[in-house]
């Protein structure tokens, strides 16, 4: 099994390299800048791993960089600007593909643009193989098995505590700031729509006795969940307190002055919580909660396992949601030894 990592020189890319090395999977370091790839290879201790440089604007070079690999893990964000080119080249090279994107409109575009191309090439593409979209999409599938047909799914991202965001994540936020401020797409009655007001103004989060104010937020699982669940409405929310932070100006100079991402201690203090509230059309309700440490380390574990499974236990070709590509319970249980807890609880019917 041979996996290429595009954007291998970045913060997330190096965590993915480390996870591939831990799992003893042959790795190709790919990226636009040869010197940065060399630095990454020596930082991670991979002197013998192949390095292949290719700019995202050069289709032929990208295809050559991926040729002979079984899968590509794309960590080169912001994805809105360069992601499509990498997906196109991975498909052309006959590679399965996952990426670490969280950009909702980009994820929708990958489904809209590449489904037929991936099917024809016999490869599987799973965008947003990250700490949020994968566990939430898989839990949604399990919840729906209990409640289908489903009236509504609300997915709430609690602001990550401890550690900070990486420079790459901040660049992705800046690149998509208008969509974030507008609340992103919500799914209603068979299609995705912008500008849908938040379906809740406050949510009682796990471990809290009082409800926390929330606002609409563009999460990728709003795009993936309706692909495998019969559901009328899906919307993403986050804590309203994030709204104030979004008004703080973030220039490229400010971002450059920050550390590449949280260091080992910062990652260990990170704690994420994603909450999924589902309501059946009969009023029955259930809640899924996933919690864990270290968003970037967890994303590396998920992206590597996601790519490995596409190779070892092939899913159908095409662009797939996580729950279409992976067995929900088995994948969630695989994450437990990595510090991820997931639970599903019934809630009082409405
Ligand atoms: N839950 C989530 O949503 C989630 C979780 C984890 C990560 N992520 C996403 O993962 C992405 C990576 O983050 P990061 O912290 O690793 O960023 P980073 O440290 O800035 O690294 C970005 C990498 O992508 C490469 N790159 C950037 N733009 C490129 C372009 N136009 N063409 C070719 N290569 C390009 C960079 O190459 P150079 O080294 O040559 O500059 C670098 O290797 C971000 O978009 C982040 O939001 C999302």
UniProtKB/TrEMBL annotation:
Mind telling me which residue stretches traverse the membrane in this protein? Answer: none
Locate the coiled-coil region(s) and give their ranges.
none
Q: Which organism is it from?
A: Actinomadura darangshiensis
| Alphabetical list of InterPro entries matching this protein | NAD(P)-bd_dom_sf (IPR036291), Sacchrp_dh_NADP-bd (IPR005097)
What protein am I looking at? NAD-dependent epimerase/dehydratase family protein
Offer one Pfam family short name for this entry. Sacchrp_dh_NADP
Q: Which domain of life is it from?
A: Bacteria
Q: Where is the Saccharopine dehydrogenase NADP binding domain?
A: 3-126
